[in-house]
Amino acid sequence: MNRDVVIVGGGHNGLAAAAYLARAGLRALLLERLPRLGGAAISSAPFPGVPARLSRYSYLVSMLPDSVARELDLDVQLRSRATASYTPAVRDGRHLGLYVEREEGAATRASFRALTGGDDEYDAWRRFYAQMADVAKVVAPTFTEPLPAESTLRAQIDDDLWRALVERPLGEVIEQRFADDLVRGVVATDGLIGIFRDLHDPSLAQNRCFLYHLAGNGTGEWRVPVGGMGKVSEALARAAAEAGAELRTDARVDHIDPGGEVVWHDGSGLRSVHARYVLANVAPWTLQRLLGQPEPETKPEGSQVKINFLVSRLPKLRSGDDPRTAFAGTFHVAEGYSQLQIAHAEAAQGRIPSTPPGELYCHSLTDDSLLGDLSAAGVHTLTYFGLHLPAALFAGDHAKRKEEATSRAIAAIDAYLAEPLMDCVLRAPDGRPCVEVKTPQDVEADLAMPGGHIFHGDLSWPWATEPLDTPARRWGVETPHPTVLRCGSGARRGGAVSCLGGHNAARAVLELAGS
Q1: Chain centroid offset of residue 492 CA
Q2: Fewer CB in 10 Å around end: N or C, the chain?
Q3: Which H/E stretch holds residue 506?
Q4: The domain that contains 281 carries what CATH number?
Q5: Average pLDDT of span 62-79
Q6: Cβ pair 228, 247 in contact under 8 A
């Protein structure tokens, strides 16, 4: 069996690459070890007897370029959330909340004033995010182009801002620009999603995470896919299949030879295929093993706990604010700046944070189709994403540590509720509460992401300082082997549900095939 391209891994990036290459006339074969496609971008009904379909792993679309959706004719509707964020707080014994509208206006300014006693913090917020928008407008258009030179981008961005974002730890600019602890924390969280870093870490991994979360599509807006994340993968699979790509599930790849041979198991025996190019939609750490090389000594380590809830009603808030407004965007829990730093210090000492920071999202307020017949009954989804919960904390007695982290996360949420969250949780027909918890170990077991790291490893700056003398290097998808390319989140500019790893790997192959 011979093909032009074999794609190892059927997540959204692999599907995007298959669609682009098949449309260009190449014979593309995609091999996925699971019985279904989509990787982390899937929808499922995890609670027996309950028809609601949840975005089980990946939960929002932030970086999928509109140009990719147009080029592949993706039938995906992305909706904006009515609220950008809501952060409950306690000031002088009084419960209130910092409310940020998606399109900021008088209500946002009034909320900042009620929290901080004046307009200075909101004015600083406006200045900071106006500058971030300017950075996004420069960086985002390059995501679907060959890697730009660092000097080219730097010339288009204010020198002081460049130094603050690219050369100094994120914590410094946040502390310089903002005075209020809660406002500082709300800004900082975008640098901590899925990674375990102090805000002053000299590696600047938190800065890179921050940049990606604010640069997506030029706006940084996180949108809800109608029908759940699975609709994104379904549209990509349809585009690939209609273009002529061959998509095989239950195909576990055992070995990749740098010369182009790929060996996989289809459930009945070993099969092999030879290709001119192999695209690896797996983590770089996994690719090493598939190539028959020693795995790197340092394994990626994810840092998150995701909890999927179904609630019979949205819980009331101690602030008295409308839950339908508060939960419609990103609901920050225990994410003040000092709370983030305390949680990091506790986790660094090997302890589950006493008050884990995290975020809640109610996607069903934006898209009630997720609920099926349950929509009329007032049922809603709630997704919790906990920070500073690295995989190492769950080693040993995984079940016990998982239960401890879950109970502490719920207690942190309850601190701002007028009624316990678990009193609002729906119960399945078998009587069990509709709560599903995923630690980094669970993510690794389910999706083969090493260490449960949602980005497959540390994110890279989306520009180059080295010579770009091959198509693979120009597109940020190179490996030590000329015909084996990275095509997933581990590629430069990978991470999140963006299709960028697949798009850029396909572009590199087309350059190579035409040379």
Answers
A1: 15
A2: C
A3: helix 500-514
A4: 3.50.50.60
A5: 95
A6: no
